[in-house]
Amino acid sequence: MIDNAFAIPPQFIMIFGGLMVFLVKERLRTGFVLLISALSVSAVLFLPETYGISATFLAQDLVIMKMDSLGRIFSLIFTLITFFALVFASANPDRLHYSAGLVYAGAAVGVVFSGDFFSMYAFWEIMAVASTFLILAGNTEKAYKAAFRYILVHITGGLILLAGIVLYVRHTGTPVFSGLLSLSTPHGILIFLGIAVNCAMVPMHGWLKDAYPEASAAGAVFLSAFTTKSAVCMMAKLYAGTTLLIWMGLLMAVYPLVYALIEKDIRRILAYCIINQVGVMLCGVGIGTEMAINGVATHGFSHILYKALLFMAAGSVLTAAGTVCISEQTKSPGNSGDDSRKMLCRQMPFTCAMAIIGGASVSLPFFCGFISKSMIASAASHNHMILVWMLLEFASAGAFLAAGVRVVFFLFFRENGMQTARDLPFAMKAAMAGVALLCILVGLFPKVLYSFAPFPVLYEPYTPAHIVGHLELLLFAVLAYMFSFSSGFHPKPIQKPLPDLDGVYIAAFSYINRELDMILNLLNQKAESFFARWFPKWVLLGAKQLPAKIGVYTIVVNKTFSQAKKQDLVKEGMVVEKIFETATFPTGLCVVFAAFFVVVLFLMH
Amino acid sequence: MRGLIMENSKNSNPQHNYAPVSAGLAWFLLQGFYILVFSLLLIELFIHKHGRLFFENAYGFFPAFGFLSALVLIFLAKGLSALFQKGAEKESLNE
Lengths: 605, 95
Fold this sequence. Notes:
The complex is a heterodimer.
Chain A: H1 10-20, H2 26-46, E1 52-57, E2 60-66, H3 69-89, H4 95-113, H5 117-136, H6 141-172, H7 186-199, H8 206-211, H9 217-223, H10 227-238, H11 243-260, H12 266-287, H13 290-321, H14 344-347, H15 349-360, H16 368-382, H17 386-412, H18 426-444, H19 446-450, H20 464-486, H21 502-531, H22 537-561, H23 566-582, H24 587-604
Antiparallel strand pairs in A: 1-2
Chain B: H1 23-44, H2 61-94
C-alpha cells in the first residue's frame, strides 16, 4: 500500500533511472542522469514525514519504505552527492558509471528507508553488486582482483546478515523492524556482524582500503559515500546505545591513522581515513544519547561531503597525472627555479584549492566537519566518558594530520615527479566547486543541517572556547608533525603494499582452500574407484565427459554464428573441458546457476 | 586517462599553467602559521571556558594534547614502518 499515490520514492527513481540509462541516446544521457538525481533530491526533501510503502510477500508483511528523520538526513546527502558525483563522472560520460552509480545510490537510499529486514537485505545486496561495477571500472588487473575480493567479502557479509534475518523472523514472526536489537541473542549477533562488514569494522576493514583506491576516479567518489554510511545508519537504527560499539568505534578511529601516516597511495590514505571517521560515528552510535545520534547523523552528512571532495581532488590528479602515489624522494617546498614548477600546486592550482577546502573541512572551524564531529565528542564529555572523549580528540587530531595535512601537503606541495600538461575538464572542476561550496556553507550555517537532525539540537559549535581549543589541538598537532619533518624523523611513505589484518584471513582462507582441495579431491578419487566397479565403463565416461562436450559444442555453435577464429574456438573449448574436468566453475557462472535453481524452487513452491 | 583531458584548453601550454607559489610565499605562510599558533596561546588566557571535564578548563591542555597526540602517532607510525621494512628486507634476503 502506498500512502501518497503522487509521491515517488527516491530509491525507485534512482534504481529505475539507472537501469534506463542503457536505453537513452548518448547525447541525452548526461542530462538524463542529472535530471534523475535532481528529482530524487526533491523527492527526499518533499515527501511527507508519514510517507511509507507496505506490501505482503510470501505471507510476510513488508515495509519497503518508512520515512523517518534518520533515514531522511542520510538519504538527503546520498542523493545530493550522487548529483555531484554524476557531474564529476560526466567528464568521461560512460554508461557504466551512470548506471552503476545511480543504482548503487538508489539501493543505499532504499537501505536507510527500509522498514523491514527483507527489504533492507534486497537493497543491501543490490548495493554490493552495483558498487562492484564501480571498482571494475578502474579497468586494471589490480582493480579486477580487488573487485573480486570486494564482492566475496560482501557476499559473505550478506549471508551472515541473511542468517540473522532468518533467525529474527523465526523469533519474532515478522521481518518488520521492532525497535533496538540486543547482542545477547543469536539473531542480534548475526545481524550485527552482517552490518559490521559494511561498516568496515576492524578486523573486517580490509576490503575498504583494498578496493576503493583501485576504482576509477569517479567510481571512488560514489564508493566513498554509500556503503559505510548506510551501514552506520542501520547501526544507529538497530544498535544505538550498545557499549561494544563505543570500543569498536574507538579502535577503528585510532588504528587506521597509523597506516595513513606511512601509506604512499593518496586514495588509500583517504580510505584509511574513512575507516577512522566511520569509527567516530560508530562510537557515537554506541554512546546512544540524543546528542550522540544527532552527531552521528550530521557527521555522516559532513563526512560524505568532504571525503567526496578529497576523492574528487585525488581523482582529478589521477586523471591529469596518471598516479596519486607519493614518492619517498620528494623535495621540500620553497625550491626556487624550475624544480618548484613540478609541484602540483603550481600545475593544478584549482584542484589544489579544492583539496585544501576538503582538508580544512575535516576538522577546522567554519567548515562542515567541525560542526558535526565535535557533537559526538561533546556527547562523550556530557556523559563523563573521559577516556572515550580523549580518544575521540586524539582521532580528530590524527585525522586532520592524515587527510587534512598529509594528503594536501604531499600531493600538492612536494615535488613528486608528477607532470600534468593540460587543464581538467570543466565538469570535474564544477563538481569539486559545488561540493566545496557545500562544505563551507554547512560550516558557516550549521543550523540548516541541524534542522534535519533526528532530535532537536541544543548544541552550539561556535563558542570562543570551543573554537580556540579545537584550533589549538589541531595546529599544535601540525606543529609536532612539522618538527618531526624538519628533523627528518617523520614516518616516510612505504613504497610496497602495507600488510594489514586482512593478510591474516587471506592467508588463512588460502590455507583452508588448499587443504580442502586436497582432502575433497582425495575423497572424490576414493569414491570414484569404489563406485566405478558397479557401473559399465561407457556410463562413467559419459557422466564425466558429456556435460563438458555439451558445453564445448554450445560455445562452438555460438561462436560460429559470431564468426570467431578457429584458434579462439579451440582455446575456449580446452578451457571449458578443463573447467568440467576439475569442477572449478567461474564464480559468475555458479551465481547464475544458483539464481536459476532458486527461481525453479520458488516456482515449484 | 590522458584522453579525458581537454585538448583545446586555453592553458594547454604547461608553462602558462603555473600558479605563483614561490619560496618567499612559502616562507611567509610558515611565519604566519607560527604567529597564529602562538597567538592562540595568548587568546586562551582571555576566554571563558565551560568544559564539562575538569581538565578541559586547564590552561594549555588542548595544545599539549594535540602536540602529544601527533607525537604518539608519529612514533607508532615509525615503529610500524620499521617493522614492515624489516619484514621486506627479510623477504628480499630469502628470495
